[in-house]
Amino acid sequence: MTCSQTTLGPGLRRGNGALWSMTLTHHTLPLVERPAWRALHAHLPQAQRLHLRQLFADDPRRGERLALEACGIYFDYSKNRIAPGTLELLLQLAHESALRERIEAMFRGDKINATENRAVLHVALRAPRSARIEVDGADVVPEVHAVLDRMADFAERVRSGAWRGHTGRPIRTVVNIGIGGSDLGPVMAYEALRHYSARNLDFRFVSNIDGTDFAEAVHGLDPAETLFIVASKTFTTLETMTNAASARAWLLAGLGGDAAAVAKHFVAVSTAAAEVARFGIDTAHMFGFWDWVGGRYSMDSAIGLSTMIAIGPAQFRALLDGFHVVDEHFRHAPFERNLPVLHGLLSIWNNNFLGAHSAAVLPYEQYLKRFPAYLQQLTMESNGKRVTLAGHPVACDTGPIFWGEPGTNGQHSFYQLIHLGTRLVPCDFIAFAQPLNPLGNHHDLLLANVFAQGEALAFGKTPEQLRAEGCPEPLVPHRTFEGNRPSNTLLLRELTPYALGTLVALYEHSVFVQGAIWDINPFDQWGVELGKALAQRIVPELVGPEVELHHDGSTNALIRRYQQMKGGGPR
Ligand code: G6Q
């Protein structure tokens, strides 16, 4: 997308009965009119002419100079295609985008989620007891800690076996039922922190409305020893409520049909007490959170109950402390030494100036195998927006497509494209110095690979080098790595709950930074609504051919074909 259109600043459209009560106090020029944005465009040809080989040759200290250590993360961003002056202009852009004021507005509890008229206060979920954060004049920190305390009490009871099922047996398996933000965080955190989890308990996760997900999750389980956590902010989500109803039926079928069993085998995590009670779960076994916690920002709210049961309250607190230390750093560190700010600005540079359409996150840590999926929601649901806060079309591309797999597996599949394809894919490499499962020289081999990938991407291999090695001439073009491909490396000491908290918070705030530059709202998700509504309309139409269809020709034909096929009609 070109950057020729103009946008309005972040003042909010009122009208329609003052739909949004919030006004932002900061004012910025439309993105394409900000001097730094223009200066970055003017600077671009010069930056594009320089190869990372040259940049490193010109500045022997670049590797250390363009690295930052904070909150236990060593962040090497030297292998980005930034020339002298690039970073200064990006930092100027942050200031011209009122980033500092926007950060303060979030931490202050302003209703920066303007389209839903909500505060955005996931930072309050990990604030210490002594903090004070107000929403509509009321301090929310005591409530946050009251829920954490109840969660801790419950988690301890399940972990110790004091919590008994309907037949008096302790719980052996916890099944989290939720989807999107009520699933991806819990699954990712469970997998990431499995090393710290109670191994006498098994954890499973059901999200998809596809019955296979539920069937496989409960396969082999004994209902008498199974606890379901129904995690849903609204408690109306079709997938979750359908799976929860199936879980209820499965449990009762296994326990002789006594409805009293539900109380011992179901707890709820929700903001909707009335809906929870309607389902049949005792609200005494409900753990609440608040409308100022977005789904994809909720893993450290009560949505993290399964995580807390798995790793215990003390380790969960350590996880929150990791988040909190990055929150403080984000709020107070000068932008040029600020991890999420630098990370977010480099993403803007790669996306809006160097033309990258995607970003790969490549953890060299098997426990982080679900981290890319988690970040997909965090980044793409947040910044997949096409209009500004004021409702005008954005002037440039917004959220890049996020994807990834753990290393080294990816090296044997899609890395070919990253190294030698025609597209620019900036990479985030994540690695830990100390293995959680030391085994021979595995870890040195793993780390050698991550360092090698960043090096190969940046510096490549020239035709001259190949010829010197005796590469046959016809193969030279095929084996030439042009290099100059950007990457960040995030090196941490060890994957602990605390370290995981720092990593997630870093990405949360990086998303915020990018949203601020684009002047969009990263905290709503209207994009999931239309498909949901249309599905609800189609459900009753699937019963049979007698129903009249009024969709487009393709959708009508698909529905008819499905009706035939499911009924065993013509093949
Ligand atoms: C996340 C989104 C979305 C949400 C799910 C589940 O930011 O809002 O992924 O988390 O749709 O919603 P419920 O928790 O209400 O079931």
Give me some keywords for this one.
571 residues, alpha/beta, six-stranded mixed sheet, five-stranded parallel sheet, 13 strands, binds glucose-6-phosphate
Summarize the structure in words.
- The protein is an alpha/beta fold.
- α14 (313-332) runs parallel beside α21 and α16 (371-383) packs parallel to α21 (497-518).
- The protein has a 6-stranded mixed beta sheet, with helices on both faces. The protein has a 5-stranded parallel beta sheet with strand order 6-5-7-8-9, sandwiched between helices.
- Helices cover 44% and strands 11% of the residues.
- The structure holds glucose-6-phosphate.
Topology:
Layout lengths: L34 H15 L2 H7 L3 H4 L1 E4 L2 E4 L9 H11 L2 H10 L13 H4 L8 E2 L2 E2 L1 H20 L12 E5 L6 H9 L9 E5 L4 H8 L7 E6 L6 H17 L7 H4 E5 L2 H7 L6 E3 L16 H7 L1 H20 L6 H15 L4 E7 L6 H13 L17 E3 L11 H6 L6 E8 L7 H18 L3 H6 L7 H4 L7 E8 L2 H22 L10 H10 L14 H14 L5
Parallel strand pairs: 5-6, 5-7, 7-8, 8-9, 10-11, 10-12, 12-13
Antiparallel strand pairs: 1-2, 2-13, 3-4
The site of glucose-6-phosphate (G6Q) has 14 residues, from loops.
